[in-house]
Amino acid sequence: MEVQNPSILLPFSPAENVLESRDFFIYLRPETNGVEIESLIMRAAREEENCRDRFSLVYLANFPGGFISQKGLVEHHYRIRLLFALKGKSLFTKYMKKVFKAYYRKSFEKAEIIGPYDAMKQLDLSEEELFNLWVQPSDMLVINGQTIKRYKNIFILNYDIPALLNRNDRHTDIAVMVFRTAGNNGEIRNLIDAIESRLSQSGIINTKSSSGRVFHYSKGPFEELLDSTGFLYDTTIRNIPLSQTTFGRYLIGKGVQINEIEGCLRHPIMYFRKDDGRFVENDIYTYTRDLSYDEAWERLQSVYVQRYLI
Q1: Edge-to-edge, what's the strand order for the sheet holding 154-157?
Q2: Which is it for strands 55-63 and 215-217: parallel, antiparallel or unpaired?
Q3: Which of 127, 135, 193, 203 is within CB 3.0–4.6 Å of 163 for a Cys-Cys bond?
Q4: Can you tell me the mean pLDDT for 85-100?
Q5: Are 67 and 61 in contact (CB under 8 A)?
């Protein structure tokens, strides 16, 4: 069966001044009503008082499910989380083991920490049943971008991965948008709040269905780059290189080499030196969440050790 290519409805428009611009992606989850939600997002950007005239749409595309599956775009986006889901506790760093022990007050070595696929077999659950398995908030822990859910006496690592991968098949298309603003992170949050408000008023999100199950947005500059490697294409259906993205151009202007940028996306878990001389381990997506380009670059400058995962 021939795979349909993405429809580039609005080709990506490079920023004229990367020092005064901030880009971020919004794309819809595959199980949503794309046309309705896309319309609500556009209206929020154009009509809300805190958003009107502050954002411009610089990219709009529709990605067919077959193309997404063939290219493995979802697997690429969740590569590190999928690695942990498959290899389990063997990938934990010393820091992650320490946090696990302190949070759950349980020996890391003795704890039954299993990946989601083993959990599905052991608990006799489907992907969606595991995804929706409810536990107390105190049973949840996120370390270095990896989620642990305690259920009874087992600890399930990245429980949501099977459902996220299963939902993306050749029958599910995804609408992808890139918005640009000259404002700060607060204004991006204003737009996300406005979108969530309209989705709530329309009954699309509620107490049982969070906005994260409806749409994704780039929560920081490095996540913007990660999103671009999967969903930013030109009209010839070639992936637009990082060197042409807004944050990529910003980093290059600061002297960061393109191979360094690519290395950050491939191996995001790092040790960062703090101002007081201490070190903190985190993944660069979480550590630069909700930061400006300047702030994200400063944190990149503080990298002391980078963890390499095969």
Answers
A1: 112-114, 154-157, 146-151, 140-143
A2: unpaired
A3: 127
A4: 95
A5: no
Please compute, for residue 267, the number of CA atoms within 13 A of its CA located in the half-sphere on the CB side.
13
- Residue 273 tokens read as 């030196």
CA-to-CA separations, 225 to 113, 122, 232, 249, in angstroms, rounded: 31, 37, 10, 11
Kind of pairing, strands 22-28 and 215-217? antiparallel
In the predicted model, what is the mean pLDDT of the chain?
90
Instruction: Give the residue from 134, 176, 178 showing the smallest Cα distance to 32.
Output: 176
- What does the block give as tokens for 214? 């409806």
Task: Give the pLDDT confidence score for residue 24 in this predicted structure.
Answer: 94
Band of pLDDT at residue 308, cut at 50, 70 and 90: confident
* Whether residue 170 has pLDDT greater than 70: no
User: Terminus-to-terminus CA distance in the chain, angstroms?
Assistant: 33
CA 150 vs CA 88, 209, 225: distances in Å = 14, 21, 32
Burial class (CB in 10 A: 0-12, 13-18, 19+), 19: exposed
**Helix-helix angle 258-266:246-253, to 10 degrees:** 130
Count CB atoms within 10 A of the CB of residue 116: 29
